[in-house]
Predict the structure.
Amino acid sequence: MLASPVSPPSTFDAEAVRASVPALHQSVNGRPLVYLDNGATTQKPRPVIDRIVRYYERENANVHRGVHRLSQDATDAMEAARERVGAFVGVDAREVVFTRGTTEAVNLVASTWGRENVRSGDELVVTMDAHHANFVPWQMLAEAVGARLRVVPVREDGSLDRDAYAAALSSKTRLVALGHVSNALGTVHPVADLVAMAHDAGALALVDGAQALAHVPVDVRAIGADFYVASAHKAYGPMGIGALFARADLLEAMPPYQFGGDMIDEVTVERTTFAAPPSKFEAGTPHVEGIVGMAAALDWLDGLGRDAVFAHEHDVLAYATARLDALGGIRLVGTAPGKVSVLSFLVDGAHPYDVGALLDQQGVAVRTGNHCAQPLMTHLGVPGTVRATFAVYNTRADADVLVAAVAKAQAMLVG
Ligand code: PLP
């Protein structure tokens, strides 16, 4: 038995939480599933599933254009969800644009605000640990308009090189694109400080909160972000829905992203005028069941108590990290103080993919590879990592299964 240098388990009732998440209760390869791929997507609790079923059983109709009762109910449900989702991160409903997720939200900003405001000779600042979704759209924009993309390196532990960030900012900077929490390493960046530095340089700031929403407090106003983007499915909600949270004055000034129904004011043969935001950015039939499911997921998380959730996750991550490290022959990748959710590592002498495959045989679901962060992997000089990502329903017992499975894989692959 390995000694654990970390504190005893918290009193948080993770077993009760697990009981309400059906997908966790199944076997994989003849073993009870231990789901540690929450960075890719979380499993859904019963109240979220029930909310989506109720929508289809009782409320389904197209929104915004019907006088009939069901259409009004669906519209009310969608707009109530917009209020709820906005309130979760501290913004008004009119600052919430629903998108397919983080990826679409970044692309929306790059191709509307970006195309209007970034010119040849301007600079965009991104970070080396960015997910491709918050890297490639800026690289493409820079290429298209002749702007320069400046990439700020991270240190060995995964924290941002603050001096390099300060040095990258100048009067030429139009926008900085930051990650709130790194999906590959779990680093929590000091986004409020970094945004303030961007503003001091006269730039706007977009913060990618895909990995933050479920794991750290998010207050978009306190962070000061001009744009904040997130996906529901990484925070216990449905796939295919997420949001762009943006300052109302920016949304007002930005041109539409797509054209069609629901986003217009008036259409004549000669010309078209557009609806006010957020509708201006939501062309076509929206993903209503996703929207109400997203609100239900955030309600569920708040119902558990966000502080208690984060403390529980911290306990499990610290416990798992200490136990894994104690195996020996393990390289932890990303050790920044205050990191959350993510345990990225390499087994000396083994390829991450082989480790992942052997863990799967033991019922343990982890992710292997570059985690859509290839510039970071190249920067750190690793081929990729094995990544276990923890969520509210994971326990120390899950960590024990992970560590035992890694020890077995190590014995098989390294001898
Ligand atoms: N940003 C980060 C930090 C992520 O982890 C992810 C998904 O893994 C994304 C963006 C893209 O999110 P989505 O695929 O939901 O659009």
Notes: The pocket of pyridoxal-5'-phosphate is lined by residues 101-103, 131, 133-134, 179, 183, 208, 210-211, 231, 242, 372 (CB under 6 Å). Residues 288 and 296 are 12 Å apart (CA to CA).
